[in-house]
Amino acid sequence: MSKETARALVVGGGVAGMQAALDIANQGFKVYLVERSPSIGGRMAMLDKTFPTLDCSACILTPKLSEIARHPNIRLMTCAEVGSVTGSAGNFRVKLRRKARFVRENLCSGCGACSAECPVEVANEFDQGLGFRKAIYTPFPQATPNVYTVDKENCIDCSRCVKVCERNAIDLEMKDSFVNLDVGTIIIATGFELFDVSRYPRLGYGQYPNVIHAMEFERLINAAGPTHGHLIRLSDGKKPKSIGFIQCVGARDVQKGVPYCSRVCCMYSIKNAVMALEHNPEAEVWVYYADIRAFGKGFEEFYEMAKSRFGVRFVRGRVAEVMEGKSSHDLVVKVEDTATSKLRLIEHDLVVISPGVIPSSGMDTMAKKIGIDQTNDGYIEISHTFFGPTITKIPGVFVCGCADGPKDIPDSVSAGSAAAMKATIILSSGGT
Amino acid sequence: MSGTEDEPRIGVFVCHCGHNIAGTVDVEAVAHMASNLPGVAFAADEMFMCSDAGQTLIKEKIKEHNLNRVVVASCSPRMHEPTFRRVVEEAGLNRYLFDQVNLREHVSWCHMREPELATEKAIDLVRMSVARASKLQNLPIKKVNVLPTTLVVGGGIAGLRASLDIADRGFDVLLVEKTPKLGGNVAKWTHLFPSDETGADIIKPLIRDVKKNKRIKILTESKVSEFDGYIGNFGVTVKNLKTEKEERYEVGAVIVTTGFEPFKPVGYYSYGESPDILTLAELQELPRSEQLLKISNGKPVKKVVFIGCVGSRQPGVKGHEHCSRHCCSATAKAAADLRDRVDEVLVLYQDIRTYGKGHEEFHRMARQKHVIYSKFPQNEYPDVIVKKSKITIKWRDVLADEDLEFEPDMVVLASAMIPPEDVEETSHLFSLTRSGDGFFNPEHIKLAPLTTHTAGVMIAGAAQAAKNASESVIDASGAAAKAVGLMAQGEVEIESTVSHVIPELCSSCHTCLTACAYNAISMDETKDPPIAVVTEAKCHGCGTCAAACPSSAIVMYHSTDDQILTMVEAFLCPSPSIQGGG
Amino acid sequence: MTSTSLSTTETVDSQGEWEPKIMAFCCNWCSYAGADLAGTSRIQYPTNARILRVNCTGRISPEFILAALNMGADGVLVSGCHPGDCHYTSGNLKARARWALMETAIEQAGVDPRRVRLQWASASEAQVFADGVRTLTEQVRKLGPIRREWV
Questions:
Q1: Which residues make up the CATH 3.50.50.60 domain(s) of chain A?
Q2: Which residues of C touch B542 (CB under 8 A)?
Q3: Which of C119, A411, A111 is nearest to B449 (CA)?
Q4: pLDDT at C11
Q5: Which residues of chain B neighbour A55 with C-beta distances below 8 Å?
Q6: Who's near A426: CB < 8 A, 6+ residues apart?
Q7: Is B22 helix (H, G, I), strand (E, B) or coil?
Q8: Domain limits of chain B?
């Protein structure tokens, strides 16, 4: 391996990919960290608090973001996607497509003057479409790199941003470009997506304004979110007094093609239930579940606290239907309480659906490009549960985080470090 | 300690942390009060101090106002002190000229319903910090070399994996195992639920590779008996348990993989009253056979009951409140497997936690094979009665709302994962703290699961929490990456917060020598009378010597008497001039 | 620092009631972290204590406690790792050994020893920490402002 190829490529800038990049870089190797969106941070950046300590997600993530940004061995490439991969362990050639962000990264200071001037407002995907952003934007305040991006689909080419930018950083004519990277090893950390809960029409998502999903809830209670952290109903802006959380939607369901457990929904919902009570201690909060899977360190203790100290009410039973009142947009949850074998109708003014985890979009194409196998569920296949939980079929290609199956944050972080370890063994056996 | 004798010009930055602080504490009032404190040259409040914008603000204001001290009032310093220390450093200030006030964990989050008193407390805390800041001093930034060897404590699956990865990466390993054999718990299992392999299938190749590897020195039947030093330069004494001989080694990093012990559930479900009542671990250790036989009389087993959460998930029972994570999936696989060999298999459970990859499939497979699952109430445990070698089990089925009874030939208790017997010894040796489950605390439960608060000491596998073998293997490689990160860099920064003896004040009383737990203080006998001297590399910075010294001859850097008392004074007796505008 | 500065103002809450002032010394590794956990767990407890972080309870010289009482603290809390769990091996044991002497000293000075409290609260014992603050605050509230005892 030449010095040029004693470098690693990490695909995906979520918490697993970030950890992998850091652990490789801290050993003295160069790393390309490639992320297809404008900022690293992944799903974790969208969360309000984290279980089981209720630490605020941004607060604990930000140090990692800046560590990446300033690390001399990490080359961060956002708005970039893997085009093709050739070669083998020690000598991969990766063609990367760098999508035009229409802002020159080296010139932008992140001052935001452009965004203030932009006349176009579009739904902000970072806020799950609940808030607005401009056509030139950064997804969130701690976005890394702190560089603006033009959403060309919505841009009206008025060029007001171009005029106001003192550093002449904006180039609305920018084209996609391609770069070739020579790397010795590749780590896949492409993360996950949430199941589309509107595929369960009986639960009312997409039909009733006060049925939302968990990521929308995260944004609603987040101080940097669309409501500045005020938990309100989307129909009338009222503070919800009774909230129901529905578990296992798009998880453990063979019929919907998601037979596996998503591992995180029980805990994030318990956390959200506790947060709902923190926002409004008078509220009634119910969780409808099949099994509570509080299996990680401190999770069971947190579940117990939610029950005993916060008074979250847990009902075991699959929800049959969510119905909406005629005029009020209030909701009724129809559930068979399996603990009492009774059919119950419970009124709520807000229902939060907990979507399961599915492989990230583009996983199939990427797996093909690299030549790695996928499981029946669409995740990346690992070589062996005990010998190679981060190793893929292709020597030199490793996987971590949710790319090989749902994981919570600490498990993703550990896997990120583990994949880094494997990658550096390949890099060090070369010619550095 | 030079360069900070000049007049303090303190910058105070009060963080909203979104609503986390500003929702309860009047942050503007706090910043306004701070701006009137003596020595404060600039004060402001800002949405997120830890964000790029917040960090840039600090750097800009340091330049603009020529600040020489910085106070950030935000979250716990245990979270962001390193962040802000770096920020002030990037702006040209010594990192020790920074102080942080904890307005979130210690104020807004624990006084949510008392905004006025919370604001008053915040104001006091900021005033105390500003007083301390004006007394802060430059301290040198010190680097030490990292020895290129890692000590791995525990030769189970995690220890073996970590050792191999480090050795494959080109660094040396000292692997210490207390029993005569490598392999840990996994090696004992003839059935490695959830998988079809035996423990030996998994462990043997690992042991072979470890033994073959020249970079790994294996010490079995051995224990670490003494541990001292600091990150990059630890001293380890390893004692051979058979010969009692001790040998000294030097290592740069440590990975603790001391694993778990299956809980022996004496007092639960008549365990011990019949040989046919056994734990899941004991079932896993039974020799493989075509037929499952009763331990008591060798007759074939026809009916088996599994009981879940034995010694786990018991609120209020110390060391047994946690979920043991691996048992539900292991039980599902074991039940499905056994169902092929026996007539009836029953699983009594509270929740079915088959969360992992392929685990839900075991659960489904068990049900397809007609394994019967029955949920019992959280506070009404099943009753296992042993009478004349007959076992009867009575329980309440929640879902059928019925009291049920069954006479199994064998009862398998899915008992908890608990720390090994000598966990306390290990925790003292490496200064690791433990959480309620009895396992070691990581540095941060979310983002730093493999490092600990003892710099240079990592944890992996079941030493950190109950987990299965696959998860332990991932941890092990991850912890190896941390150790290699240190060794590959070759040097690391260490804290300068050590104690120092002022020779002129030392009265040669030796009190400090007995106070120090690290033998970091000795008497310089070349002086007459002899005076105490601190070996800084050995000092851990606890400050016990400074408190013990009757002559006030010991200065604890960054925690001096003056720095502490000025805070007490700022809280209790703020002179009118320093009461500020609050 | 001088003891002439006893002209301290008493804290009163919005209803005009006297609020005890508690000076709390916490070790970084156990009790300070326990107090952090109390916050993240949203455990609510009285606002009266002001926490001063030291690396180890072994750092806390009796002089600090006496100074705090002298300057008008109505109560002093010292909170550290459980005996045997000290991050620095044995600093908390040294603190405990000094405690007895310190208690005698303040008693001789006429200060009610119920104004000072030594407790052990680990990093995971958020409730223990919060309860300790509550207990001492309530205890001191019953005793009234300290000035009566010193002057």
A1: 7-99+176-191+360-428, 196-356
A2: 55-56, 58-59, 87-88, 91
A3: A411
A4: 56
A5: 79, 446
A6: A89, A90, A184, A185, A395, A396
A7: helix
A8: 10-139, 149-260+419-492, 263-417, 499-556
Q: Is C89 left (phi over 0), alpha (psi -120 to 50) or beta?
A: left
Is residue C86 within 8 angstroms of chain A, CB to CB? Answer: no
pLDDT at C12 over 70: no
Q: What pLDDT score does B194 carry?
A: 64
CA angle B74–B78–B84, rounded 5-degree value: 55
Q: What is the pLDDT of residue C150?
A: 56
Q: Which CATH architecture has domain B499-556?
A: 2-Layer Sandwich (3.30)
Distance CA A5, CA A28 (A): 14
How far is B156 from B469, CA to CA, in rounded Å? 10
Are residues C133 and C24 in contact, defined by beta-carbon separation less than 8 angstroms?
Answer: yes
CATH superfamily ID and name for A196-356:
FAD/NAD(P)-binding domain (3.50.50.60)
For B149-260+419-492, give the CATH class: alpha beta
**Which pLDDT belongs to residue A53?**
86
Longest dimension (CA), chain A: 72
Q: What is the pLDDT of residue C16?
A: 66
Record: contact A278-C41, CB cut-off 8 A = no
pLDDT exceeds cutoff 60 at B582: no
Chain A environment of C40 (Cβ under 8 Å): 53-55
Report the complex ipTM: 0.95
CB pairs under 8 A between A and B: 222
Secondary structure (3-state) at C43: coil
Is B530 in contact with B506 (CB distance < 8 Å)?
no
Quick one: pLDDT at residue B521?
Answer: 95
Mean pLDDT, range A169-190, rounded to an integer: 97
For residue B580, pLDDT beyond 50 = no
The pLDDT of residue B50 = 84
| A53–C42 CB contact, under 8 Å | no
Distance CA C48, CA B110 (A): 12
Max intra-chain CA distance, chain B:
89
Among C40, C124, C127, the strongest candidate for a mutation testing the A interface, having the largest count of A CBs within 10 A, is: C40
Q: If we measure between CA atoms, which residue out of A93, A72, A74 comes closest to residue A178?
A: A93
| Confidence band of A110 (pLDDT split at 50, 70, 90) | confident
C97-137 pLDDT per residue, tens: 999 989 998 998 889 999 999 999 988 889 999 999 999 99
Topology of domain B263-417 in CATH is: FAD/NAD(P)-binding domain (3.50.50)
CA dihedral B228, B231, B234, B238 (to 10 degrees): 80
User: What is the distance in angstroms between the CA of the first residue and the CA of the last residue of chain A?
Assistant: 8
Helix locations, B259-402, DSSP H: 280-285, 327-339, 359-368
For residue C6, is it within any domain? no
Torsion of CA A271, A273, A275, A281, to 10 degrees: -150
Q: What is the identity of the amino acid at B145?
A: N
Chain C residues touching B116 at Cβ < 8 A: 13-14
**A407-A412-A413 Cα angle (round to 5):** 155
Best CA proximity match to B568, nearest among C77, C110, C121: C77
Q: Is the pLDDT confidence value at B531 over 90?
A: yes
Measured between beta carbons, the chain B residues lying within 8 angstroms of C85 are 427, 433-434
CB B454 within 8 A of CB B430: yes
- Which residues of chain C from 76 to 95 reach within 8 Å of chain B, CB to CB? 81, 84-85, 87-91, 94-95
- Report whether A144 contacts A58 (CB < 8 A): no
Pairing of strands B216-219, B172-176: parallel
Chains in touch with C (3+ beta-carbon pairs under 8 Å) read A, B
Question: Considering the domain A7-99+176-191+360-428 in this protein, what is its CATH number?
Answer: 3.50.50.60
pTM for the structure as a whole: 0.89
